Amino acid sequence: MLSRFLRTRLATTARVSATTNPLAIVAHPQKDPAFHHEAVYGFGAKLKSRSASTNLVVHENNGRMADGPPTLVELTNAAWRLDDRPREMALLVLDMQKEYEPYVTQIVPQCAALIEAFRAADQTIIWTNWDHRVDDGYYSSIDHVVGAGGVADESNPQFTWTPDGADTIPALAPRTEAEKEREIMSLHANKFADRDADGEPILLPMLRDANVDTVVIVGAWTDYCVAATALAASDSWGLDAVVVTDAVASANIISDDSSHSGLDITNLFARNTDSYEVLDYINHSVHDKSYEKLMAARLGLGSF
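-> structure tokens emitted (304 positions)
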């Protein structure tokens, strides 16, 4: 006898799966915000369908994976490009705050240039700052991972310690009242997970209100908040995500290049590119409407 839960789920699941398990609950995309109907992005698939892959590279195993297959696949970058189509973009400035300034000084100029470009193009900018305090009374699974060590000497990285440590670095801070209303005092690595006092999402409605389809992510830490937010944007919400490689930083030592230790992760679900490409796209596509028309004509999409 099937449970009521299983009977309901099986009755409402329309997608056909090749699984041999008749009781498996099949995920279906009809009401999933991460999936778009073919009509929305089918042109991209058509453009790529007859061309050889340029972002998938096959390597000989050569002992890289013991007892593994003879060949392994490397995803070198996203198949899409910024200039594939007109975009409504938002810049997410993650945790570029005073307490982290010693670790992120080297990326401040690139972040500042992007902020000014987005302002000039009247594109959305959203700031987040890590504001978890040791005495705020809240405890998450991430706290459990990091542990309680380093509290006495204020070295535990899970907490912000100085009174103004969660304030944005002045060179990058929001200026106008409207910008200040788009600054989030965050408690999550995945910035889509932050909730307001009523338990409602904060970031996603801001993006939806601006009709954003592409998020450009800068800030800290590459292997923590940047990676978690890029993954959520792409996998949970169907947004194209761009990680700006020369505008992200990390204090975590995972590879020889500790500034960019998370880029191998973000490369799997975002477009890794530098600030020059993003600035070039904004300066051409956003400011020059004729460029947008030419792009739409090239793709056979008509007007946008």
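Residues 86-295 form a domain with the Rossmann fold fold (CATH 3.40.50.850).
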